[in-house]
Model the fold of this input.
Amino acid sequence: MSFDIDKIRADFPILQQTVYGKPLVYLDNGATTQKPNIVIDRISDFYRTTNANVHRGVHFLSDKSTQEYESSRDFVAQFLNASSSKEIIFTKGATDSINLIADAFTQSILKKGDQIIVSALEHHANLVPWQIACQKTGAELKIIPINEKGELIQSEFENLLSDKVKIFSIAHVSNSLGTINPVKEMIAKAHQFNIPVLLDASQSVQHIEVDVQDLDCEFLAFSGHKIYAPTGIGALYGKTEWLEKLPPYQSGGDMIDQVSYISSTYAEIPLKFEAGTNNYVGAIALAEALKYVQNIGLKNIANYESELLNYATQKLNEIEALKIIGTADKKASALSFIIDKIHNYDLGMILDKMGIAVRTGHHCTQPLMNKLGINGTVRASFAIYNTKEEVDKLTNALLKAQQMFS
Ligand code: PLP
Done:
């Protein structure tokens, strides 16, 4: 399919509304994306026609529901180019996926003196679980620093690599600065020391092609709601040999094989990691959203969004008092900025009154903001339905806000 922006916009009912009498300009896609009709309809159709708990019943609906759930798993595997559907675990989202791995490593691998590497760009979701893992095991957290453009300093990363490192967990794309990290090269370097790598793809799967076999990461986490699917669903990819050796994270129904009053054996992967009634409707809607993205084509999406980001960067750079935070050579979707003498929160409030939704504050990256010596930024983050006209509206609104403050 070619990139037909009018058609794409028409797919998203929420975009057709006005706020405070102005057409909605939704530029908070890094926080969550809007949902196309096809996903919304899939959820309501499923509840109207198919709903029954999965993996449990012998009846018609239960079987149909299970089949749709498992074929959604197949689709997620295909979308990420995993070698098997067994390597896909449905979770609540990226935070849940990362906590699963951090907990499994805490239980079975990490010990005093071990090290974990993360980067200075991480979202709290890829930082706090590792801090807790360190507190519980006596392992130590090592942080890859950034340069003034918001890129990871590769020589510093190489200096951190050693046999002591038991896992390296890194964002593919920074949610605050938009930096695309050179993860393929970094994964290869980590592998020279047999270090498994967890890729936080929360801000990449919706913008650029992600192929787990090509990247060769051991684990990958993402959230459905950032890729046009509902909240409360996400996935964790893990290489078979790793998922087989890691212990379960949560326990209860569906994750077991045999249970006695004394002890239990566990199901094979992926069900070993899916305790309880999972969000199977969310999983089915996630597959629908991924099909929608795949139909448009990630190459088309990456090209379109990159042109939009370049245009926005150029327009915002024309505003004298405005400073873009994060000027990495390779960026996706997010454009963070500050304006001299105007607090990011005030800017966000003014933009809101003009119908423009942006995110303000620390974007769940407090250590990064501290490192940059700022209390936060305004972040415009783009998705497939945004346009250059919307960028112009943002630019004009910022100029107006500046006048109001001068
Ligand atoms: N990692 C990154 C890079 C993110 O941007 C986010 C959310 O903004 C998360 C992890 C956490 O995602 P969720 O809140 O959907 O679990």
Q: What stands out?
A: The chain is about 40% helix and 15% strand.
